[in-house]
């Protein structure tokens, strides 16, 4: 079970889940279990690592969303609202799997909450083809550090903290016009080789490889426009 504030799941909202399965299946070696018709759970070596979900509204962007674990999604949603964030979608049960909510921080960066029941989150992470890190690109990094430091203090700064979550200025990598957002990183063994695969599969490179405090990173988009990063530590 993941502690409150630990990234515990990611999903991609896509217009075409079947096309997503082909892209990510070849890029990361994922296999898939189809749930509920419009939802495919991705597996790596038989363990759950992500999900692909069909967008219900074509006007919404194709995006990867990170979920932070919590034992009480309604309580955490209230704390987020009280701290200046917004609750986009109030906590609601996802069948027997858990309770989820969609929220933003005070600058508008979107993330999700996950209160687990039958689905605890990642079965495998920090290995090639699985979740490795999430970076918040913010306009005001000091304000972001204060907001998340208060919200997820134990996960970020507690004695057992092993953070998979960093904060950086939007302009470090992106145009100043880019809104604040979370960027999900997946581990790879070789970033240039993975970039070749992304291009071959119909994706594109948004930011070529660069060095960070947590490893070599490149930012890409898939063949449907959802952005994510490749990370080699």
From TrEMBL:
Sequence ranges assigned to domain VOC in this UniProt record: 6-116, 130-233
Pfam families, per database record: Glyoxalase_6 (PF18029)
Record InterPro entries: Anthracycline_SecMetBiosynth, Glyas_Bleomycin-R_OHBP_Dase, Glyoxalase_6, VOC_core
Protein name (record): VOC family protein
Organism: Streptomyces indiaensis
């Amino acid at each position: 079970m993941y502690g409150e504030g630990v990234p515990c799941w990611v999903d991609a909202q896509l217009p075409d889940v079947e096309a997503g399965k082909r892209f990510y299946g070849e890029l990361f070696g994922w296999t898939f279990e189809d749930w509920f018709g419009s939802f495919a759970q991705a597996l790596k070596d038989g363990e759950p690592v992500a999900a692909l979900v069909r967008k219900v509204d074509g006007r919404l962007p194709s995006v990867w969303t990170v979920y932070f674990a919590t034992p009480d999604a309604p309580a955490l949603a209230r704390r987020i609202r009280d701290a200046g964030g917004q609750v986009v979608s109030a906590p609601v049960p996802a069948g027997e799997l858990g309770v989820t909510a969609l929220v933003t921080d005070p600058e508008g960066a979107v993330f999700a909450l996950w209160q687990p029941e039958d689905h605890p989150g990642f079965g495998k992470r920090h290995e090639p083809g699985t979740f490795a890190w999430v970076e918040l690109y913010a306009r005001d990094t000091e304000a972001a550090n204060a907001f998340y430091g208060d919200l997820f203090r134990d996960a970020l700064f507690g004695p057992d903290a092993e953070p998979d979550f960093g904060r950086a200025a939007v302009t470090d990598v992106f145009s100043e016009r880019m809104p604040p957002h979370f960027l999900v990183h997946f581990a790879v063994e070789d970033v240039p080789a993975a970039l070749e695969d992304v291009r071959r599969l119909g994706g594109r490179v948004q930011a070529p490889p660069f060095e960070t405090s947590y490893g070599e990173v490149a930012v890409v988009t898939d063949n449907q426009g959802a952005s994510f990063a490749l990370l080699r530590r």
